[in-house]
C-alpha cells in the first residue's frame, strides 16, 4: 500500500501554525517499517466500524452484534475483542443515527475512501473514516474514529481540516456554496476520558475554514522545499527521525546543560517553579532522544553491527486474553490451574 508524502494523519505536526515542516523529510528519510500492536488493534477496530456502517448504508444489519465479530480474525490477523466491538459500535451508531436523521445515503456518503487534496498540495491525500454531505441541510460531516487512549481534540483538528480541503472539491462545494455550509468535525474516541464525552465535535462555517486550509498549503510547500523548518514539541515522541533531528538534538543538549548548572540551595518560589519547569521539559526532550537512539541501536545490532556497551535480548511477548478475565479464571479453576497471577 502506498503512503502520502504529506499524510493528513500527521497534519497536526507539519501543517499547523509553527508546525514542524521538517517532519516530512524525516518521515521519508527514516520510514517506519514495523507496525505497532496498538496500530494493528486500531485497524481491527476500524474494520468493525466500517462493516456496521456499510451494512446500514445498504439496509443490511448482519454485522451489528458482538457475536459476529468477537473471537474472529481481522484482515490483518488481529483477533477481534469485545473492547474493539464496543468502541466501534459507539462510533458507528453515531454515524448511522446521523445518516438516518439527514436521510443521506448513496453518493453523498464516503466510508474509508481515498480523497485527493489538491487545494493543499498535489502530493497530499488521505482516507477519512467517514464523510457525509447533507446537501439539503447544508452540512458536511467528517468523522475520525480513534481507538487509542491518548486524547484527541475536535477543535481545530488539523487531520480533519486537511480532509475537508479535499472533500469540498469532492462534493462540489465551491466558494459560493461554502458560505452557506457548516462543517461538523466529530472525533469518536470511546476509550479516552474527556469532559465532553467520547464523541466530540467542532462546528465551523465552510468559508471560515479556508484560512486553515491556506496554512496547510503554505506549510506543505515549505515542507517539500529547501527551507523546511525543524521544531521540537510533543510530536517528537512519535517522529521516526528524532535521533537525527538537529532541533531535537539541540533542544535536548541545551536543556541538559541548563539542568546541570549549579544552583543555590535555597530558591525563591518563582525560581523554584522555573527550575522545575526546565527540568520537566528537559526530561521529556531527553526521553524523546533516548527512544530514538534506542531504536537506531536495536536496528544496527539486529543487522549485525556492534554497538559498544549495548546488546539486544529477547523479551517477553505482550499477549492478551481475548476473553473476560472472569471466564479465564473460571476455565483455569476447571483445569486445576491458578491463572489469577
Secondary-structure map:
Elements: H1 11-14, H2 23-29, H3 37-57, H4 66-69, H5 82-102, E1 109-111, E2 115-116, E3 125-126, E4 130-134, E5 139-145, H6 158-170, E6 182-188, E7 199-205, H7 210-223, H8 246-260, H9 269-302, H10 325-334
Parallel strand pairs: 5-6
Antiparallel strand pairs: 1-4, 2-3, 4-5, 6-7
Give a nutshell description of this structure.
The protein has 341 residues and is α+β, with helices and mostly antiparallel strands.
- Please mark out the parts with pLDDT under 50 across 5 or more consecutive residues, or reply none: 256-260
Question: Whole-Å distance between the termini?
Answer: 41 Å
Structural shape: globular
Strand order of the largest sheet: 1-4-5-6-7
Amino acid at each position: 500500500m502506498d503512503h502520502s508524502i504529506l499524510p493528513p494523519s500527521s497534519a497536526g505536526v507539519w501543517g499547523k501554525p509553527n508546525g514542524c515542516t521538517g517532519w516530512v523529510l524525516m518521515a521519508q528519510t527514516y520510514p517506519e517499517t514495523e507496525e505497532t500492536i496498538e496500530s494493528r488493534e486500531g485497524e481491527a477496530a476500524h474494520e468493525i466500524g466500517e462493516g456496521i456502517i456499510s451494512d446500514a448504508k445498504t439496509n443490511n444489519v448482519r454485522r451489528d452484534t458482538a457475536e459476529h465479530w468477537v473471537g474472529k480474525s481481522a484482515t490483518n490477523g488481529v483477533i477481534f475483542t469485545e473492547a474493539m466491538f464496543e468502541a466501534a459500535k459507539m462510533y458507528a451508531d453515531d454515524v448511522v443515527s446521523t445518516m438516518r436523521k439527514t436521510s443521506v445515503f448513496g453518493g453523498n456518503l464516503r466510508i474509508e475512501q481515498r480523497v485527493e487534496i489538491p487545494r493543499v498540495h498535489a502530493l497530499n491525500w488521505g482516507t477519512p473514516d467517514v464523510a457525509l454531505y447533507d446537501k439539503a441541510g447544508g452540512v458536511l460531516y467528517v468523522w475520525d474514529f480513534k481507538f487509542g487512549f491518548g486524547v484527541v481534540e475536535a477543535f481545530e483538528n488539523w487531520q480533519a481540516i486537511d480532509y475537508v480541503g479535499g472533500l469540498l472539491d469532492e462534493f462540489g462545494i465551491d466558494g459560493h456554496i461554502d458560505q452557506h455550509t457548516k462543517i461538523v468535525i466529530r472525533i469518536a474516541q470511546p476509550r479516552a476520558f474527556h469532559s465532553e464525552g467520547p464523541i466530540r465535535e467542532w462546528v465551523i462555517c465552510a468559508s471560515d475554514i479556508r484560512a486553515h486550509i491556506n496554512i496547510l498549503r503554505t506549510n506543505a510547500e515549505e515542507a517539500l522545499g529547501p527551507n523546511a523548518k525543524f521544531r521540537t514539541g510533543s510530536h517528537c515522541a512519535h517522529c521516526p527521525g528524532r535521533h537525527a533531528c538537529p532541533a531535537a538534538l539541540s533542544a535536548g543538549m541545551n536543556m541538559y546543560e541548563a539542568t546541570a548548572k549549579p544552583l543555590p540551595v535555597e530558591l525563591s518560589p518563582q525560581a523554584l517553579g522555573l527550575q522545575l519547569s526546565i527540568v520537566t521539559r528537559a526530561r521529556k526532550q531527553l526521553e524523546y532522544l533516548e527512544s530514538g537512539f534506542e531504536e537506531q541501536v536495536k536496528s544496527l545490532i539486529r543487522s549485525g553491527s556492534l554497538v559498544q556497551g549495548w546488546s539486544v535480548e529477547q523479551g517477553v511477548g505482550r499477549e492478551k486474553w481475548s476473553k473476560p478475565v472472569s471466564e479465564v479464571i473460571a476455565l483455569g479453576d476447571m483445569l486445576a490451574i491458578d491463572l489469577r497471577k
